[in-house]
């Protein structure tokens, strides 16, 4: 009896030992696999100030296809990022690999300082929705036109201005909100775009004349679009010049009273772009990420979440609600970035001294 019991115990012990051994080997295999995966993975650092909900979508869809790449975002405005870059010696290398969604002026300034890497994304061959001229080290990705916004509760549609020249009428005296060129990139870009358009027809002074009239008629220079539209809500002003994406975002936020016109003669457009950073050690992963940003799914999601439209390519119209934005034809001003960037500071200084400061 004791022999039988001892044999049974020994068999059970061996079985337990076999189970433990198999479990241990399995754990070792999992651990080794994790180590190999960690060694093969790439961490891609992306700088942007686009909304978190869009960042999450882009990260999820990109990593689903590129499982060896871990995308990590840092969030800062174009102005803050440019200042950060300018405080770092170029040879030290960039603090991130991709700059996504930055304003065109910031990207062009970084390009002029040799901080960007030339790359031709796969989506670049598509037709562009605006006439662009830039140096190729960064690429326009998103755009939104400037519009003439107003309240339909205060102003009948038939009496609303339909073009820039209409704003010179005395009826709009002390009733216009403009974005401050000295305190906002949106305001500065609108100003230099108006002047560049005047240059394109051979008459820079006509651009300064129009800006001088606006200065006489302006009720206030707003720091941002929210402040400008608040002035319309409170009926402190009747007209606001602002980017369409911002106005549409406000319209969708329980503001059915808000309306706008896209100027008939054409309008400036605000541009956001993307670039690889010079000196990145993850160039291959960065290129794949930039290519991903131009996919129709990402462009469609971007429009839905930000109301900015793509410069290159199309969105999936079946996913865009019928009443998503006002449907009006419009024509963008051409954008010679190299010319604008070279003249920008001089034009802004002249406006400050001769128009605003007089």
Pick out its properties.
13 strands, 11-stranded mixed beta sheet, 19% strand, 2 domains, D-Maltodextrin-Binding Protein, domain 2, alpha/beta, 358 residues, two-stranded parallel ribbon
SSE layout and pairing:
Elements: H1 2-40, E1 42-48, H2 52-65, E2 69-75, H3 78-86, E3 98-103, H4 104-112, E4 116-117, E5 132-133, E6 139-151, E7 176-179, H5 185-200, H6 204-217, E8 218-222, H7 225-233, E9 239-243, H8 244-251, E10 258-261, E11 269-277, H9 283-293, H10 296-306, E12 309-310, E13 335-336, H11 337-356
Parallel strand pairs: 1-2, 1-3, 5-13, 7-8, 7-9
Antiparallel strand pairs: 3-11, 4-11, 6-9, 6-10, 6-11, 6-12
Helix pairs in contact: 2-10, 3-4, 5-6, 5-11
Structure characterization notes:
The strands form 2 sheets. Strands 1, 2, 3, 4, 6, 7, 8, 9, 10, 11 and 12 form an 11-stranded mixed beta sheet that branches. The protein has a two-stranded parallel sheet with strand order 5-13. It folds into 2 domains: 43-142 and 270-319, D-Maltodextrin-Binding Protein, domain 2 (3-Layer(aba) Sandwich), CATH 3.40.190; 145-267 and 332-356, D-Maltodextrin-Binding Protein, domain 2. Helix 5 packs across helix 6 (204-217). By secondary structure, the chain is α/β, with parallel strands linked by helices. It contains 11 helices and 13 strands. Strand 1 (42-48), helix 2 (52-65) and strand 2 form a beta-alpha-beta unit. The N and C termini lie far apart (114 Å).
